[in-house]
């Protein structure tokens, strides 16, 4: 019984951290929506987006190398969001 409980706790914790991690990575999508809806990337910092891209890429590599699914999955979601922001900046700057 103790082993089954530990497995259930681990599974719940992994799913919860994946959900929270993905939720945290929605920020770039909100920024991208604003850029594309306003058709303007005014006041969006290129440097901040490049740092964000570097950060999520490093986290993907770390999560993959350590086989930590929540880190890997949530940051893959994040990298696509940052790429969307960069695309919007390229189109509307």
UniProtKB/TrEMBL annotation:
GO CC list: membrane
TM region positions: 41-65, 71-92
UniProt entry tagged with the keyword Transmembrane helix: yes
Keywords: Membrane, Transmembrane, Transmembrane helix
Record keyword Ion transport present: no
This protein's name: Sugar efflux transporter for intercellular exchange
Source organism (scientific name): Candidatus Bodocaedibacter vickermanii
